[in-house]
Design a protein that fits this description.
The protein is an alpha+beta fold. The protein contains nine helices and 13 strands. A hairpin with an 8-residue loop joins strand 8 and strand 9.
């Protein structure tokens, strides 16, 4: 390619896929991670994804995974099919509940599951739409019991429903995001009961901590849950409601895109020169074909002209693929819309929305001996996976002794 030779047209798709594969590998190397969205494991079959199954013979399989259900007549129905890995447990629960509560009496339900979240681009299979939004088809399938018997069973289930004893369940917003800066292990939530008239002392502590009777293990101290969560939410709100954050990100993106696109400019110029050369050769051959009177010479010239046309078409295809592979920046309107969605979720203030914002915007919280480090995404990293995450990040540190002041300010 560097010498002006273009590959055959049948290889162009594979070359484009190799470019995408290189971008994914570079993204994982730059961000020190082993995962990337829609990871390519086969150049000839880029839609195939590795699915970890845990089998002794083949722990990882490659192929479509489907969720199959069998109705009361013995017919199988594919509920869901995807080459990406997914958890069929929530789907099984949803299918059983739908069968238990509706399908016994012949009703079939559509439009029950909620759509994908606009920020995370993921679907919550544990959450359903309000019942008034369901599309219920009476007599959509054969009923196996009468509606009166079905209603009697529902009444009995409601009467016999076991009421669980209330348990002490604490919420830890930073689960999966908070780590020890000494040993690298994850910090875990912990609830210490105090005097019955005092509130419990709730902390995050290192999972590799040393117990009272151990000499080995991590010596890093626990951190107060409310203090560190208040610090993270304070910085998160300052970022989301910062009116200048979009301009800062756009400047970073433009600088990165200019640097990346400059690398391909030399190859683009080379292909353009090759196309100009092919054009001149094609014109000379056409002129020779029209001027010659020898049939054998004209036949040889026409063969050369056909080969030259193939080279020209291949060079045009490669030039188009390189031009299309240049980095495309997300628009300012897209970034503003993402932040507007985050603002709406932040104003709701519910536990579910707050946890969702932390999952999207917080990369990592590192608890050190003397300070706490927060790696925060200025915009959701799902905007463009080809852009390194470090361009969207900001690192904030605070002394551990000042966490209490942050908690008091937020509260």
């Amino acid at each position: 390619m560097q010498q002006g030779y273009a590959p055959a047209a049948k290889f162009c798709d594979q070359i484009i896929m190799i470019h995408l594969l290189y971008d994914q590998q570079k993204y994982m190397y730059d961000n020190k991670t082993h995962s990337v969205e829609n990871r390519i494991v086969s150049i000839s079959q880029p839609y195939v994804r590795p699915v970890v199954r845990g089998k002794a013979k083949a722990p990882t399989e490659f192929g479509a995974k489907l969720h199959l259900s069998i109705d009361e007549t013995g017919f199988g129905r594919i509920e869901f099919l995807s080459f990406d890995a997914f958890n069929e447990g929530p789907m099984l629960i949803e299918a059983l509940n739908a069968y238990r509560y509706r399908k016994y009496k012949g009703e079939f339900i559509f439009n029950r599951s909620t759509g994908k979240d606009p920020l995370t681009k993921q679907r919550n299979h544990h959450q359903s739409k309000p019942e008034e939004e369901w599309v219920i088809v009476p007599n959509g399938i054969p009923a196996i019991i009468s509606e009166s018997d079905f209603n009697r069973v529902q009444e009995l289930l409601h009467v016999r429903k076991h009421v669980r004893r209330p348990q002490y369940i604490e919420t830890y917003l930073l689960t999966g995001k908070i780590f020890c800066g000494v040993c690298g292990h994850a910090y875990q939530g912990n609830r210490n009961a105090t005097h019955k008239d005092r509130p419990p002392y709730i902390t995050y502590r290192c999972g590799n901590r040393a117990s009272r009777h151990q000499t080995s293990g991590c010596k890093n101290k626990p951190v107060n849950r409310d203090a560190v969560e208040a610090f993270v939410l304070d910085k998160l709100s300052m970022n989301i409601f910062n009116p200048d954050i979009v301009d800062v990100i756009m400047d970073r993106f433009k600088e990165y895109a200019n640097q990346q696109n400059a690398d391909s400019q030399g190859l683009i110029r080379q292909y353009k020169r090759s196309l100009q050369s092919y054009q001149r050769q094609e014109e000379n051959l056409l002129q020779s074909v029209t001027e010659t009177e020898n049939a054998e010479v004209r036949k040889v010239l026409l063969v050369q002209l056909e080969k030259l046309s193939e080279k020209k078409a291949q060079a045009q295809q490669m030039l188009k693929s390189i031009t299309c592979s240049n980095k495309e920046l997300p628009t300012k309107a897209v970034l503003k819309e993402l932040l507007q969605q985050a603002k709406r979720q932040f104003r709701k203030g519910t536990l579910q929305e707050t946890k969702k914002l932390i999952d999207v915007f917080v990369d990592r919280v590192t608890i050190g001996i003397d300070e706490v480090e927060l790696k925060l995404y200025l915009i959701p990293p799902v905007t463009n996976q080809n852009i390194p995450a470090k361009l969207c990040q900001e690192v904030i540190t605070i002394d551990r002794s000042k966490l209490k002041n942050i908690r008091n300010k937020v509260s």
